[in-house]
Amino acid sequence: MEEKKTQCESEVEIPSVPVIQFYPQLYKQRYRFVEDLVYRYEPKKVADLGCGDASLLRQLKKLSCIELLVGVDIKDEHNLEMDGYYLRPYITQRLFPRELELTIILYQGSVVERDSRLLGFDMITCIELALRVAETYSYSVEFTGVGEPPAGAESVGFCTQIGIFRKNGAKAAESCASEQREQHVYKPVVTISFPSLQQEKYFKTTVVSEVCKQVKIMRMEYLRGLKEQEEGREPSNESDPRLLAPMLWEGQLYTEAEKARIEASAKPFSVKDKFYVPLQRLPAYVRLHHLGVSEERIRSVLADSGTLSSDGSAVAIDLHDPPEPDDYSDDYPDGDDYPDGDDYPDGDDYPDGDDYPDGDVDYPDGGDDYPDGGDDYPDGGDDYPDGDDYPDCDYHPGDEPGDEPGDEPGAILIS
User: Does residue 176 share a domain with residue 115?
Assistant: First the structure.
């Protein structure tokens, strides 16, 4: 029997199957396909049916055109709440808020059930979820896909096939809406609101930050011009590279039209030790111009900041930054680096009359370098108090006799 089995196994040849690898991975290609559609059509309301772990939603929340992002999945509430954790705003999104509002909602529910809260959405995606839409609802269909087949297998088609359904006219949408009114089947589990410039506190913070940045850049340019005049040099028309850095970071190198708009506005000036930027000039700068703030709006935002001139027509700051505060005549209050007359507070390098605080050689143990009376550490027989070279039996096990077995090498537990 064994001989027949061995013979049979030797006669069977398992054909090698080539492994097809996709780069980027197919799921990333599918998400990128959806992103491209969002870039092309700029929908404001997007829903993902069968959202899974919300990976697609995490990608779509970065797109500035979307104002409402909804995910629907049948999974339990706890898992949906965990998915919602990764959809929250980043800290940087509070410092640099979106221009438009964004609300993200995760619903618990089945895609085979209707919920009227999904009416009126501009785009609905079903990634990795089979869905059929009948022609009854007046959709046009475009078939495409991602994951191109290898050479010689083109007839197989895309690895991931995609159908794009578009509504034909407004009447179809109206008829669909009339069939489904106030049917709230899904259970809302997570609702997240993102900071945006539509909210007054974030708008004011952004305006103040942008005004301060532009005023400081103008002051640096102004001081550079004064220095060139003092040195008898011709004024330079080239921007200081230090000033270009923030603009390069934000993509704010000016076009000729933007430069002309700025040059046509009132110029900054100085009086004694104060530097003034007329409010009339500030809306000419790209970011503030894009925000649509007027001179009056800037004045109202800066009213409580203490940076306005006495007549409220300009931002006023010191022409030169004040020197860094120094509480002492040198680095420390004692005439040298420490308050004792030398480098340490004891009259020499340590408070004991020699280099260390123990009154004998270098340490307080009365005869050697540590207080154990016989070696370098306080354990009375070796270098640490545990019977080996380390103090707790938990560090570097196995290095010296006396360690307890079973400790993880190099592991440190902090509690």
Answer: yes
C-alpha–C-alpha distance, residues 99 and 163, integer Å: 32
Q: At what angle do helices 295-302 and 200-230 cross, to 10 degrees?
A: 100
Cα-flanking dihedrals φ and ψ of residue 30, to 5°? -65, -45
Domain membership of residue 171 as a residue range: 26-193
DSSP string, 28-79: HHHHHHHHHHHHHH--SEEEEET-TTSHHHHHHTT-TT-SEEEEEE-S-HHH
Whether the Cβ atoms of residue 144 and residue 109 lie closer than 8 Å to each other: no
Q: How confident is the model at residue 258 (pLDDT cuts 50, 70, 90)?
A: confident
My answer on whether 242 and 379 are in the same domain is: no
| Domain match, 313 and 270 both | yes
Closest CA to 300 of 276, 279, 278, 329: 279
Burial of 226 (0-12, 13-18, 19+ CB in 10 A): exposed
| Residue 43: predicted pLDDT | 95
Total structural domains within the chain: 4
Mark whether 350 and 364 lie in a shared domain: no
- The percent of residues above 90 in pLDDT, for the chain, comes to 40
pTM score: 0.64
